[in-house]
Design goal:
The structure is a single chain. The protein has helices at residues 275-284, 299-302, and strands at residues 4-11, 15-16, 19-20, 27-33, 37-50, 53-54, 63-69, 86-87, 92-96, 103-111, 116-126, 140-154, 157-158, 163-169, 175-182, 186-198, 201-202, 208-214, 223-226, 233-238, 244-252, 259-269, 311-312, 328-330, 334-335, 343-344, 346-350, 356-360, 374-380, 389-395, 407-414, 435-441, 446-452, 457-464. It is mainly beta and 469 residues long. A hairpin with a 2-residue loop joins β16 and β17. The longest helix has 10 residues, at 275-284. 30% of the residues are buried.
Length: 469
């Protein structure tokens, strides 16, 4: 299957910029980057006006523009110091200088941008504090208009977990792109490429490079695996982000030859704990038994094979020579011995226009079992919850530890929870997921965390008290 490029164009109405005094001085623009976008180009147009005409005599004042995906950028040109328990997410920033007397333009390119919400913020430099008398001259106005041009792919081949298909890269193409959807409760993604050959002849080395990335097509620094070591190649992604598309790029390094291979995706499904574990989890977390099961369905029950070609239940006897037509082999998802722990929902309560409080069901006091993590989900709604501050506070009930040296660790992660399964090492990050750590003990029983303008979507708080031997 061949992909086609489609170009989309988006623009916003020009707005008058102000000198920076506070965040209220900033003009904020919102764009939505479509899925499967390979290039996004922002054209940044700034022009002067004075008295309804071109402001050729207006002084040149640089314009600062900030970019961020997922949430509005944090604007701090005055270098204000935040409290030590505050997380300030990073963003891109560029400065536009004037190339013409009354007009200037700038360009900001992003290759394989993350899809969804993108926010731009723009302002003039800090006011110099000069005093002028109104009415003696027309006021200079600086107007800013961003435009977005995206080039996206249509017709990307979709892989289904557990299904292996025969594919090829013709000699006139350098690569082929696939995508696979990873639902909730998946602990590992495994991309396997086998039966690699050129011109229907098996070769000891496979001239292919595998790359994988969540949410957008891979970049040069994405997770990769060189397959030249043999005809079979495996690329694994532990702890993938949930409810996201993963993009798989198959690049070849050998020219002037068709490359044949079989590719498939296997996942580890941790969504089906035993009934006894589900019941004990519910009791340990002070929850009704109905909240004790992580998920009532396994991945094999949620991914029907309807509409797919006829399946071969056993592809292990296939020789190195591939049939001319595409064939599909199905292998059931592997179950993960480390079962997903129950994830407790939170209740959203909108206190007023600008404040939202998340309540824990059957809380606020909770029990953290010694042998597993207690996990809670906080869902921030797109756009509506953008631009605020996520405040999190943990407090240890010192009377419940009875003089023991107990420490409760917490991880706050976006996209999927980290269950803190290793007692010897407490980490809140993985190769693909960032996170923030908190801890409380009998000596310091309260901790706070503030995240300025957090990304929207689902945040997971994992609490665990490791067993000391």
């Amino acid at each position: 299957m061949y992909c086609l490029f489609v170009t989309d164009y988006f623009t916003r109405t020009p707005r008058k910029l102000s000198a920076f005094r506070s965040f209220a001085s900033v003009e904020l623009f919102h764009f939505n980057v479509p899925d499967d976008t390979v290039v996004a180009v922002w054209n940044l147009i700034t022009f002067k006006e004075q008295g309804g005409t071109f402001g050729d005599s207006c002084p040149d004042r640089n314009v600062t523009v900030y970019f961020r995906s997922g949430a509005p950028p944090v604007i701090n040109p005055l270098q204000t110091r935040f409290p030590r328990d505050t997380i300030v997410p990073g963003s891109f920033a560029i400065t536009l200088t004037w190339t013409l007397p009354n007009r200037t333009t700038g360009v900001f390119n992003v290759t394989s941008p993350l899809p969804g919400d993108w926010f731009l913020a723009a302002h003039l430099p800090k006011d110099e504090g000069k005093i002028s008398v109104k009415g003696l001259s027309e006021e200079c106005q600086y107007l800013f208009q961003p435009q977005l041009i995206v080039q996206r792919l249509i017709g990307i081949s979709v892989l289904y977990p557990g299904y292996y298909i025969d594919q090829m890269i013709p000699d006139h193409n350098r690569s082929v792109l696939y995508k696979v959807f990873i639902p909730n409760y998946i602990s590992k993604v495994r991309v396997q490429l086998a039966n690699c050959s050129t011109r229907n002849r098996s070769t000891e080395t496979c001239p292919i490079l595998l790359k994988i990335r969540a949410r957008a097509p891979p970049l040069h620094n994405s997770t990769s695996q060189d397959c030249r070591g043999g005809s079979t190649c495996v690329l694994q992604t532990p702890l993938p982000s949930w409810e996201q598309w993963y993009y798989i790029l198959v690049e070849r390094s050998l020219g002037n030859a068709d490359v044949y291979f079989r590719i498939g995706v296997q996942v580890k499904d941790c969504s089906k704990p035993s009934a006894s574990k589900g019941a004990s989890s519910g009791m340990a977390l002070n929850m009704p038994q109905s909240f004790g099961a992580a998920m009532p369905f396994s991945l094999t029950e949620t991914l029907p094979a309807a509409g797919l070609p006829s399946l071969s239940q056993n592809g292990s006897d296939r020789g190195p020579t591939l049939a001319p037509e595409d064939t599909i082999t199905y292998l059931a998802p592997a179950s993960d011995t480390n079962k997903c722990w129950p994830i407790r929902p939170t209740l959203r309560n909108e206190l007023d226009t600008f404040s939202v409080h998340f309540y824990i069901f059957f809380g606020p006091n909770i029990s953290v079992p010694p042998d597993r993590a207690a996990i809670f989900a906080i869902n921030l709604m797109p756009v509506l919850d953008s631009g605020g501050v996520l405040n999190l506070e943990l407090k240890l009930n010192a009377s419940s530890v009875k003089g023991e040296n107990i420490t409760v660790f917490g991880c706050l992660n976006h996209g999927m929870p980290l269950s803190l399964s290793d007692n010897s090492t407490i980490k809140c990050e993985s190769e693909s997921i960032g996170g923030f750590m908190l801890s409380v003990n009998a000596t310091s029983n309260i901790t706070k965390l503030r995240i300025l303008t957090p990304q929207t979507g689902t945040w997971y708080l994992s609490l665990r008290s490791p067993v000391r031997h």
